[in-house]
Design goal:
Archaeosine Trna-guanine Transglycosylase, Chain: A, domain 4; 2 domains; 30% helix
Length: 214
């Protein structure tokens, strides 16, 4: 698998900047610093990936509210999507055994969609505003159980395969990785994504985990 990690730092847009980017509606949520493996087979997305690699740019990962990411039926329409997503850059890619293109996307900054349009090849484009970077906050003693849970999740083969990084002293890092790895409904993950304060996200994760245990 070809490594292109050294290009990632040049792909990240600045906060508060408005930009037109391709959007990839999916049934999952990408968090900052996360990894998302994808299999690409539709021509519009194959062309998008090629363009992103050529131009050293990224695309927006957005959760589908209603509809499908594939164009099905006689009169397919674009899915209804949430307005907040994550800018993703391609860090690895290869050709899979079935001939599909496999990529691994790394999560960058969050953005808010202001308006959308559609290209001639049915690729969804978005005029987006990049949101400010979340303020650094330290984890505390009250987060000990969540940190221990994350340490166990990080031992899972899938987490190790994705080579995820986590700083257990940083509330942003801990809250992002827990939100990513816990088996939660996509809509719940979307709510966690849209939070802007790391400790607030950790408090919500504590509530969610307690409910799952009861």
């Amino acid at each position: 698998m070809l490594r292109v990690r050294d290009m990632v730092w040049r792909m990240q847009p600045e906060a508060s900047v408005r930009k037109v980017i391709p959007l990839f509606p999916l049934g999952t949520v990408l968090f900052s610093g996360g990894r998302l493996p994808l299999r690409i087979f539709e021509p519009r997305y194959t062309a998008m990936v090629s363009r992103c690699l050529r131009e050293k740019s990224g695309f927006g990962v957005v959760l589908i509210r209603e509809g499908s990411d594939a164009r099905l039926g006689k009169n397919p329409t674009q899915p209804d999507i949430f307005s907040v997503g994550t800018y993703g850059t391609i860090v690895d890619f290869n050709t899979l055994n079935n001939g599909m293109l496999g990529i691994i996307t790394s999560g960058g900054p969050k953005f808010r969609i202001l308006e959308t349009s559609e290209t001639n090849d049915h690729l969804l484009m978005g005029t987006v505003e990049f949101l400010p970077e979340e303020r650094a906050q330290a984890t505390g003693e009250e987060h000990a159980s969540l940190i221990e849970m994350l340490r166990e999740l990080m031992k899972h083969p899938m987490a190790q395969k994705l080579a995820l990084d986590v700083d257990y002293r940083d509330a942003r890092s801990v809250s992002w990785r827990l939100s990513e790895l816990l088996p939660l409904e996509p809509e719940i993950k979307q709510g966690l994504l849209q939070m802007s304060l790391p400790r607030e996200r950790l408090a919500e994760l504590t509530r969610i985990v307690n409910n799952l245990r009861n």
